[in-house]
Specification:
Layout (H helix, E strand, L loop, with lengths): L2 H15 L3 H13 L5 H6 L12 H5 L5 H14 L16 H7 L8 H10 L4 H16 L9 H4 L5 E6 L5 E5 L1 E3 L12 E3 L28 E4 L9 E4 H20 L19 H9 L6 H12 L12 H6 L9 H22 L9 E3 L4 E3 L4 H11 L2
Parallel strand pairs: 3-4
Antiparallel strand pairs: 1-2, 1-5, 5-6, 7-8
Helix pairs in contact: 1-2, 1-10, 1-12, 2-8, 5-14, 7-8, 7-14, 8-10
Length: 390
């Protein structure tokens, strides 16, 4: 997904769930920050780089693809953008351990790790709520791809068709063509999109996530069908308008849970009634054929609250964090986001590791803390000890 959904649509979902204007801004800011909290950003602000929730293109160019480098990549992308659906999924007969491990990282909606993610955010503040909303939303956009470099999982082939509604109520199949020019915008009229360059190396970063499918998963309006490598190149139909509306309604439900309106968060549950009066308006935004829906979601959010939804500004909370002394940093906006990011990455890594899968690296249990995390997250452990008075 893009800024239009992670920032502006998340603001709308937050406000509809009962948070006020400022709280909704904090939640959607945190949701969008997940796509920008890179090691470069953290290093600039003298913050712990283990809290990175994304990797910039320039960082990816220098990323190692040896086992240690791949573990680092997997920790980031599986924790925040491609949440695994079933860490114990059965695979085709005769599949090797490496294939099985990668197959089990495929992202999909309503998995056990989603429940763990939402519950982990409970009581942890607005930054944790926003971070969780980013992850939830991405399970809908990024389903069927894995957050680890893999040709045998993430590759696609020439069989790509956009499904365009026609006047008779059906869908026309129009061939999609891909190019490899990152600077050229996608051409909706010609159905030409940019994707990653094919690399035959199994672990090339070009084979990370949905790179081989370009930005198609990130556009709310598009319907398409393609052949994923992991499915034996059997056809998958992706209906983004339906998925994005499900994501929006599930965010409202999750945010109501985080507000304390519901005692439990359950899989495959959606808040259909709350946005019902706006359903046609929301679906019109989702289905509008455009590369960027920020303006439409912004206008809808301002209609809901009667307040101005300010544009996202990455530098907004930097000064507060940088100028705070060491004892105060965890209480700042960025400090709270960093703690939430460390906890999420630690939780997902531990779940992957304890399932017998080493693609995200090793993890240990902090049993005395009631907390499970990556062994080098000393800052996070110390924070929990102070909270518990240990």
């Amino acid at each position: 997904m893009q800024e239009d959904f992670h920032y502006y649509a998340t603001y709308c979902a937050s406000y509809l769930s009962g948070f006020d204007h400022q709280q909704s801004l904090d939640i959607c800011y945190s949701a969008q920050l997940v796509d920008l909290c890179s090691r470069t950003f953290l290093k600039k602000n003298k913050a712990p780089q283990s809290a990175a929730t994304t990797q910039l293109q320039l960082e990816m160019m220098d990323a190692r693809t040896d086992p240690v480098g791949l573990q680092d990549i997997t920790r980031i992308w599986s924790s925040f953008h491609f949440l695994p659906y079933d860490l114990n999924a059965k695979v085709k007969k005769g599949a090797g351990r490496q294939y099985r491990s990668k197959y089990r990282l495929i992202c999909n909606t309503n998995g056990d790790l989603l429940v763990d993610t939402i519950k982990l955010a409970s009581g942890k503040g607005l930054q944790a709520a926003g971070l969780a909303m980013h992850i939830l939303a991405d399970t809908w956009a990024h389903r069927y791809f894995a957050g680890t470099p893999s040709l045998v999982i993430n590759n696609t082939n020439y069989y790509f068709y956009e499904l365009m509604p026609n006047e008779s109520g059906g869908l026309d199949e129009i061939p999609i063509s891909f190019r490899h020019s990152p600077s050229a915008p996608d051409d909706l009229d010609e159905h030409k999109y940019t994707n990653s360059l094919f690399q035959s190396s199994e672990n090339s970063i070009m084979n990370l996530g949905h790179g081989r499918a370009g930005h198609l998963p990130d556009y709310s309006f598009i319907r398409y069908k393609y052949l994923p490598a992991w499915g034996g190149y059997e056809e998958i139909i992706k209906d983004n308008p339906s998925d994005y509306y499900h994501a929006f309604c599930q965010m409202i439900y999750a945010l109501k849970y985080l507000r304390g309106e519901y005692a439990e968060f359950e899989k495959d549950t959606y808040e259909w009634n709350t946005p019902k009066q706006y359903e046609s308006e929301i679906k019109a935004i989702i289905e509008k054929r455009q590369l960027d829906a920020c303006a439409d979601w912004k206008a809808f959010g301002e209609k809901l609250s009667g307040e101005t939804v300010e544009p996202f500004d990455l530098s907004k909370y930097e000064e507060e964090y940088v100028s705070a002394n060491e004892k105060e940093k965890n209480s700042t906006f960025l400090g709270q986001f960093i703690l939430a990011a460390l906890a999420q990455k630690s939780m997902v890594t531990n779940k992957i590791f304890t399932s017998g899968n080493l693609l995200a690296g090793y993890s240990i249990d902090f049993d005395k803390m009631g907390f499970r995390g990556i062994k080098d997250y000393k800052m996070l452990v110390e924070h929990f000890r102070k909270e518990l008075g240990i």
